[in-house]
Design a protein that fits this description.
The chain is of the alpha/beta class. It is 28% helix and 16% strand. The longest helix is centred in the first third of the chain and has 16 residues.
Length: 200
């Protein structure tokens, strides 16, 4: 989406081992027809390209695509696997058309991998079990958690903001207005019997 140039863009996809083979097969089939998009600038596209090159040099594999420019500010859409923490792409927003896959054994490992980031803006959970979605969502260290939807999801009435390295405060609706308001507390002590609410 938008050549990956949106702060809500999905950079990491965490997949349960029990469905990983089928999921990767389906996403690869869907993504193989994605056309390269145009980046906002050559500089942005180059930084995303450099992250892909470094990941490949350090042992990451490409399920789809690879570090290839298709124009001055365009990259081939890519899906990676085998990404490790010593690679920039592990925990840096590339703002490019790529995402990394992480295969986990169970829910606990999925939560641990998701929270293993200095950022915490948006996350998405895909499941048919809404109790599970809420249970997991409560433990994810992200400002927004969307269920069965994109990470790039916003509504005017939602409080939007992040945790950890994803910033402070919230915007939208009354939450955004409150960011421009200075709260003040005034306490009244009339225990000595003096003081009225008459003319001051």
């Amino acid at each position: 989406m938008h050549h990956g140039q949106i702060c809500f863009s999905t950079e990491r996809v965490i997949i349960l081992e029990s469905i990983a083979e089928e999921f990767i097969k389906l996403i690869k089939e869907k993504a193989k027809n994605f056309a390269p998009g145009s980046g906002v600038s050559e500089d942005v596209a180059s930084k995303a390209y450099d992250a892909l090159v470094e990941a490949e040099e350090k042992g990451a594999e490409f399920i789809l695509g690879g570090p290839k420019k298709t124009g001055p500010a365009e990259l081939l859409p890519s899906i990676l696997k085998g990404v490790t923490k010593d690679m920039r792409i592990f925990d840096v927003e590339t703002f490019g058309p790529s995402f990394s896959t992480y295969i986990v054994k169970d829910e606990e490992e999925a939560i641990a991998v998701a929270n293993n980031s200095v950022y915490g803006l948006n996350a998405s959970i895909h499941t048919n079990d809404m109790y599970r979605a809420i249970r997991v969502g409560r433990r994810l260290e992200f400002g927004q958690v969307h269920v069965n939807s994109l990470t790039a999801h916003n509504e005017a009435t939602f409080p939007i903001g992040g945790t950890k390295g994803s910033g402070w405060g919230r915007n939208n609706s009354q939450y955004g207005i409150e960011e421009f308001v200075q709260l003040k507390t005034i306490s009244l002590n009339m225990s000595n019997g003096e003081g009225t609410f008459g003319r001051g």
